[in-house]
Backbone:
């Protein structure tokens, strides 16, 4: 019989002899189904548990941290992991982000409301193939319907649940249960020349209607029966929420205060400092994160398994408050550790695991309304293979995928070839012509790592389609 | 049979009750009616060290251990993984795998069959390295990186230095009743980046070109790469780049160094010749391939100078193994011969599906928690026997660009349209290098690009590049892979100015 993760945290803290200690126990379970060409391809369930011990050796003028993280640790091996971390700390050179541990729950600038959440002593939550049981039956019917309708379906469904237990020698005991799920559906015509895609993030699969997703894709495949070839160039372009999400997620990931202070990002101010306070767009838009946003809830405190450019193990347990990154079009904050906040003189605003982009305009339209008001423009399905080309401007490149549609006089009139784009999400903010109403979305490119977003459809002037891609 | 390197496999792994676990899982699977079952156990150690301006920023030491059971029940896959290395947990995973196969059967219309592989008995294999990086203390490794960082920071014009060292030791045990393979691989990737920031806000970076390698810690001390010389040159190269003129967009002849070309090979050939992609099994995620099986033996992929091989055997290669994750022995074969598509990368299921005979050994799972997929072999462009040096290739260009080092990369989901940048770009005028350029990207369609290859450099230009982090599949998996390349001469490739693209 294994110990509960909570007890492993207590055991590790009790055997630790280093000056300070942080222990994180993660209990994860996953279930997935994958299909291609109307048949199931792979599937699986997995459970894992990971113990991460952060030993801190305080010394004259600083502190060193040793981090050892192991999966599958048996009860009698817990002490071995602690000793290994302590040795790394004792032998290690001083950590640049060294600081005191976070003292007490709620002792930070913002109190935490943990009501309604499972307590420290409750057992870890878990998922299994049963979560996908109802979905699997529905999917089987949908695959047969698609085959009968001359469509081939490809896709993936995954559910994951991680229970994280965080304890420190300063007395913190924090726990967070994170469900994460998604479904992606790709429909192709039998001859594979037409393709459409839809994706949704879900916390429990109760809200997934795969037959409805398939109906939507069938409509798009019909749109694509008329093919229009267009050359590279700058086009008025409607980005659906998934595409907006991919571009703004990358902007958010590039908003680290440390790199900006070093003068090496688009958010660096020439001559030194950061661009916090500068206007990025004339539209009243806000980019923000909020751990308690309905439907997108995420950890309300810092969980840092390792230190890095934008994270610090010393910050573990720090409460996370709702944070505006862009407020009314103005750059309002960068992602910070307590260390980078000391360097920048800006507030401590650590990264949060969700992202909301929205207009302050209460009458913001939906995508259908935006299509209806389009004279001539492109409507995208999603973006793919997005990579940074130049950090100076945050120029990104990538492809359109699974459906580019021509809109003329308010109606979709055909499908256009795919394009390679070269665009900066920062430059794009200044060319936003319209921002629609925000809805939950799944970023096609980054959804494996970052799936809790609410994003609007947007209309961009002169979106830079750099060349034509023959891919269909 | 025992072969490969000189080291013993980590006793922490070999003293686990691996055979008892396999027996418990296989027996349970057989009892429940599985037609095929295989068992895998793995222990993966990794350590990440990162320094910012010579100060320790990241020290993360991870270990993953676990087991996996894969079954075929009535023609449907089932897979389950667990982290407890006990016979009970192994048998439980086998029961779960069978249950998953039964749930999944409702959606399966293709009967899973596996290409036969000769039995290899009880085999052991260890990759070639001298010093296990996990035998060197983290403090010593961080001290070496700090010394290198400070040397760079002390030079004029260097404002910041990032230093990273990623190291992995992978131990695997595989059993399927015919073959039992116990293996160990070591790999590491050191990288340093120098940054220069001007008062007007413009900045440039210059990174070491040292590729990740299937080597041990000796790699940092002069075996396989000359870091001392490279570190000496970086500040000079960075200053030249900062002062360089911006490129005029247009069509140019290119001489491409292997330190850049490996990534173009990876994206436009490596992924395009994966049979599961070509058949549509990755259509919703990583994508498909223009190089479909109906074109095997006829598609003119590139110029007649082009021979590309796949292998899982190259010494120090990141995809090199003794046996893959389906018990198939490492092999070497042609993918493109005389410029024509001549082969694919296969696993046992894909090989059986299209009747291509034996698998060429490309099954790989990145952890015991994941099901093996067809993953990339070392895919390499072969040099020309007696072929030219890099400077001889440059000598054949009147007005062009020489490109070294990889940086940004992107390619479409059928592997047609790609765009790459690099670490540094030199103008070529009258057959000679004439200083660096900046803001350069090259963009092409795969077959246009490789058919524009006029000359392939000789073996003296050949370098094994590669990456630790090739992504594929859902759930996502990462795989390490190497790509050998000579220098090449390409005619008339489209060059973009990235500053203009962002304007």
Residues:
């Amino acid at each position: 019989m294994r110990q509960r993760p909570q007890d492993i945290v207590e055991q590790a803290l009790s055997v630790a002899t280093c000056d300070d200690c942080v222990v994180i126990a993660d209990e994860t379970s996953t279930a997935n189904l994958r299909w291609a060409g109307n048949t199931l391809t792979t599937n699986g369930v997995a459970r894992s548990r990971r113990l991460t011990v952060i030993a801190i050796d305080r010394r004259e003028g600083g502190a060193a941290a040793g981090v050892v993280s192991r999966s599958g640790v048996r009860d009698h091996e817990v002490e071995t992991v602690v000793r290994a971390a302590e040795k790394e700390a004792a032998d290690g050179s001083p950590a640049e982000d060294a600081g005191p541990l976070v003292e007490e729950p709620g002792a930070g600038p913002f109190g935490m409301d943990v009501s309604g959440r499972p307590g420290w002593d409750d057992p870890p939550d878990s998922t299994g193939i049963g979560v996908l049981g109802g979905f699997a039956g529905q999917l089987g019917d949908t695959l047969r319907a698609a085959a009968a309708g001359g469509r081939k379906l490809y896709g993936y469904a995954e559910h994951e649940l991680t229970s994280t237990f965080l304890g420190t020698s300063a007395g913190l005991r924090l726990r967070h249960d994170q469900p994460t799920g998604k479904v992606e559906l790709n429909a192709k015509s039998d001859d594979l020349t037409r393709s459409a895609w839809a994706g949704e993030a879900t916390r429990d699969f109760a809200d997934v209607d795969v037959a409805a997703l398939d109906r939507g894709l069938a409509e798009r495949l019909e749109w694509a029966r008329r093919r229009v070839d267009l050359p590279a160039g700058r086009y008025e372009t409607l980005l659906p929420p998934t595409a907006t999400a991919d571009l703004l997620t990358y902007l958010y990931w590039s908003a680290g205060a440390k790199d900006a202070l070093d003068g090496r990002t688009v958010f660096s101010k020439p001559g030194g400092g950061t661009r916090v306070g500068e206007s990025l767009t004339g539209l009243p838009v806000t980019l923000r994160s909020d751990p308690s946003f309905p439907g997108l809830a995420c950890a309300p405190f810092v969980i840092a398994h390792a230190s890095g450019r934008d994270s610090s193990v010393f910050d573990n347990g720090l409460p996370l408050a709702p944070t505006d990154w862009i407020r009314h079009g103005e750059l309002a904050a960068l992602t910070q550790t307590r260390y980078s906040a000391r360097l920048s003189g800006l507030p401590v605003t650590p990264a949060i695991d969700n992202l909301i982009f929205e207009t302050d305009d209460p009458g913001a339209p939906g995508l259908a309304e935006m299509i209806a008001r389009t004279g001539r423009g492109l409507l995208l399905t999603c973006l793919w293979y997005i990579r940074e080309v130049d950090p100076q401007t945050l120029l990104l490149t990538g492809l359109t995928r699974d459906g580019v549609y021509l809109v003329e006089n308010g109606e979709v009139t055909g499908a256009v070839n795919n394009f390679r784009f070269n665009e900066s999400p920062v430059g794009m903010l200044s060319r936003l012509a319209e921002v629609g109403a925000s809805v939950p979305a799944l970023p096609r490119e980054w959804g494996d790592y970052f799936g809790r977003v609410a994003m609007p459809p947007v209309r961009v002037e002169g979106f830079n389609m750099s060349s034509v891609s023959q891919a269909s | 049979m025992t072969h490969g390197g000189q080291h013993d496999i980590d006793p922490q792994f070999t003293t686990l009750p691996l055979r008892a676990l396999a027996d418990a899982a296989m027996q349970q699977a057989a009892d429940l009616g599985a037609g095929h079952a295989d068992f895998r156990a793995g222990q993966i150690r990794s350590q990440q060290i990162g320094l910012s301006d010579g100060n320790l920023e990241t020290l993360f030491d991870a270990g993953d251990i676990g087991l996996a059971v894969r079954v075929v029940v009535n023609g449907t896959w089932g897979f389950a993984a667990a982290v407890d290395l006990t016979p009970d947990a192994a048998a439980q995973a086998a029961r779960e795998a069978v249950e998953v196969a039964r749930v999944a059967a409702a959606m399966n219309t293709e009967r899973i069959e596996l290409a036969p592989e000769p039995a290899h008995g009880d085999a052991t294999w260890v990759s070639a390295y001298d010093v296990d990086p996990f035998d060197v203390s983290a403090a010593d490794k961080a001290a070496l990186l700090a010394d290198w960082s400070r040397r760079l920071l002390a030079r004029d014009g260097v404002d910041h230095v990032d230093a990273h060292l990623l190291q992995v030791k992978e131990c695997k045990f595989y059993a399927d009743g015919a073959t039992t393979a116990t293996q160990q691989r070591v790999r590491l990737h050191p990288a340093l980046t120098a940054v220069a920031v001007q008062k007007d806000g413009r900045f440039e970076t210059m990174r070491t070109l040292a590729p990740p390698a299937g080597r041990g810690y000796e790699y940092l001390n002069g075996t396989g790469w000359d870091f001392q010389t490279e570190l000496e040159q970086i500040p000079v190269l960075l200053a030249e780049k900062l002062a360089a003129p911006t490129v005029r967009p247009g069509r140019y002849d290119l001489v491409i160094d292997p330190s850049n070309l490996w990534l173009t090979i990876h994206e436009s050939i490596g992924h395009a010749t994966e049979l599961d992609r070509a058949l549509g099994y990755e259509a919703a995620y990583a994508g498909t391939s223009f190089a479909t099986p109906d074109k095997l033996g006829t598609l003119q992929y590139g110029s007649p100078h082009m021979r590309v091989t796949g292998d899982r055997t190259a010494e120090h290669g990141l995809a090199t193994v003794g046996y893959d994750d389906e018990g198939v022995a490492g092999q070497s074969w042609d993918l493109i011969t005389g410029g024509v598509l001549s082969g694919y990368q296969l696993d046992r299921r894909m090989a059986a599906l299209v009747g291509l005979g034996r698998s060429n050994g490309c099954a790989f799972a990145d952890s015991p928690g994941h099901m093996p997929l067809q993953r990339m072999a070392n895919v390499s462009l072969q040099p020309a026997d007696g072929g030219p040096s890099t400077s001889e290739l440059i000598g054949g260009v009147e007005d062009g660009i020489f490109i070294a080092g990889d940086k940004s990369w992107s390619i479409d989901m059928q592997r047609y349209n790609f765009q790459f940048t690099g670490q540094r770009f030199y103008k070529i005028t009258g057959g000679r290098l004439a200083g660096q350029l900046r803001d350069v990207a090259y963009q092409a369609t795969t077959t246009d690009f490789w058919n524009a290859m006029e000359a392939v450099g000789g073996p003296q230009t050949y370098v094994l590049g590669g990456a630790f982090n090739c992504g594929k599949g859902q759930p996502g998996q990462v795989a390490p892979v190497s790509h050998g390349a000579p220098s090449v001469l390409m005619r008339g490739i489209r060059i973009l100015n990235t500053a203009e693209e962002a304007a």
